[in-house]
Amino acid sequence: MAEWLIEDGIGERRALLVEGEQVLAAKLFWQGELAAGARVTGKLAAKLKGTRRGVALLDNGGEALVDQLPPSVTEGQSLDLVITRASLAERGRLKRAQARVAGADAPPPSPAIPEGRTVRRFPAGLWEEVWHAASSASLDFPGGEVLASVTPAMTVIDIDGIGTPREVALAAVPAVARALAWFDIAGNIGIDFPTLATKEDRRAVDAALDAALDHWPHERTAMNGFGFVQLVARLEGPSLLHRFATARLGASARMALRQAELAADQGTGRVLQLTVHPALKAKLDQAWLDELARRTGRVLDIAFDPTLAIETANTQLVPA
Question: Which numeric CATH code is attached to 247-318?
Fold first, then answer.
């Protein structure tokens, strides 16, 4: 049976839904962020005129847009809140977290961190496969590729392949479903299939998409004459694609630390050498490095090589 596995990394928590040796879905949470479902307190800084919405200054210094405010709430009042959507970084701006007033009559949001079994390490290669696919924002399918792009309005999935438009579209459907689950994509999603000339072909792809996504809560349009389908799913936080689109250095720094932990597990030697691109230097928080030394029991030697790709780290164990 499928099972969520949880791995507590340095600076992040990773989750994989695994069945056998196959990854069905993935989630990623960064330390210090407020995830959906978190209970927080704050003070209502402003009520938005003509609405039941307002802006709260949270006790941790952040802000949240509060929806469904009770009419009796006034500015300056302290509130107990539940986060319903984490803050989202976008190019040039940060979208505030969203919240609502906590109450016995309010249904709790689904937990952002799935219930599962905490493991020291995922089965070999599974997280790497998901991570590198998210880094490139692409997944292959027989005869083609799906490419995903994050925009402020929506996540757009483009399909390219060899064959007739119908063949390519139908072959791409499983990869589209896998991309949605692997990259934890939600919110507004556009899928640009090849243009299909006949209604019969469009209905066939619609049916295949229905079957592939029947377990995933969402709404969608039927394919239009240009091959475009829009999906809408509840958005509770940044996808893996958002991480790479807005914080590639931070994602790569965390992955480098994970690779260093793996190297320490697999060899002997008192000194753990970690070599990364110089752009990651500012992202390697000293507290993270201290945690790496504690977890591995090794002396750290951090080096920088501008010839490395940002997403690539070299690790090795050497004698003192």
Answer: 3.40.1260.20
Class in CATH terms, 137-233: alpha beta
Give the amino acid at 208: A
Q: How far apart are CA 238 and CA 289, in angstroms?
A: 25
Q: 84, 100 in Cβ contact below 8 A?
A: yes
Cβ–Cβ < 8 Å for 68, 103: no
What does pTM read for this prediction?
A: 0.91
pLDDT profile of the chain (320 residues), mean per 10: 96 96 96 89 92 93 92 92 89 85 63 84 97 97 96 94 96 98 97 96 97 96 96 95 95 98 91 97 96 96 97 92
Query: How crowded is residue 13: how many other Cβ atoms within 10 Å of its Cβ?
Result: 17
- Beta strands per DSSP E along 11-58: 12-19, 22-30, 39-47, 54-58
Cβ proximity of 63 and 83 under 8 Å: no
